[in-house]
């Protein structure tokens, strides 16, 4: 028997909406150094990658839950990463890019999210808009029954 999760159902749209809400609340981090541990946290400005990770954590099932909620979560996790990285890239990300750099797909896509906000002229409102646009590409009640999805280990 599984214990019901108290968190919302994991869908790409919910992950991305939570990410947009977070970045609107704390702001987009821009600076000379992207990693400043002493200045990070739940209220410090963040990168798009950090906001996405906060969105992922907002729908992750409880550890005591077993079975289908985790399968659904894994599919939503990967779908949301693909949607958002394609959105910040301006078009679908080609597999040639990460293979040429000898990176895994998830590492390359995360790098896109990490670096996107560092470009001159990026704003918090622009980041939230990009994230919400990606969320709109996948409805919250979308079917996650696709077989053969990629399960990424230790993503968050």
Automatic annotation (TrEMBL):
Protein name per the record: Uncharacterized protein
Gene source species: Streptomyces buecherae
Organism ancestry: Bacteria, Bacillati, Actinomycetota, Actinomycetes, Kitasatosporales
